[in-house]
Design brief:
- Keywords: Membrane, Transmembrane, Transmembrane helix.
- The chain is mostly helical and 130 residues long.
- It has one domain.
- Helices cover 79% and strands 0% of the residues.
- It has six helices and no strands.
- The longest helix has 28 residues.
- The model has no long low-confidence stretch (mean pLDDT 93).
Length: 130
């Protein structure tokens, strides 16, 4: 059975969870910017990055709220939350017409780019995210 506090987080906890997700997404987006700048074939318009931050924080927060009921381990939670973010993000890019090889390559890369900071940040903020 879930505790009432798990079902209805306070505004403070919600804001802190959003901040943790946003921090991971911003760091992951900086890593992504470096990767996209590394090769001409990976180039994307600059508008891609702010859009990715907004999109990533939104879906990351939703994934966190759902996935924390399936795992209490911050490492697994980080892996699953950002798996869903990467999957949804790349589905959007597929619908926008990006090439299939690009979509699949960056689905894996985006997951790793988000996972790297999340594996450090989530355990340090376990009291907030779980």
């Amino acid at each position: 059975m879930f505790k009432t506090s798990q079902l209805a987080p306070t505004a403070k906890i919600t804001a802190q969870q959003l901040a943790v997700i946003a921090l991971v997404v911003v760091i992951g987006t900086i890593i992504d910017w470096v990767v996209h700048a590394s090769r001409a074939e990976f180039a994307v318009p600059f508008s891609y990055f702010p859009n990715k931050i907004i999109f990533g924080v939104f879906w990351g927060f939703i994934a966190l709220r759902i996935m924390k009921y399936f795992t209490r381990n911050p490492y697994w939670l980080a892996a699953w939350v950002f798996f869903w973010v990467a999957l949804i993000l790349q589905t959007k890019y597929f619908w926008q017409g990006y090439e299939l090889w690009f979509v699949f390559l960056f689905m894996f890369l985006h997951w790793l780019m988000f996972l790297a900071p999340a594996l450090i940040i989530f355990p340090k903020n376990k009291h907030i995210i779980i």
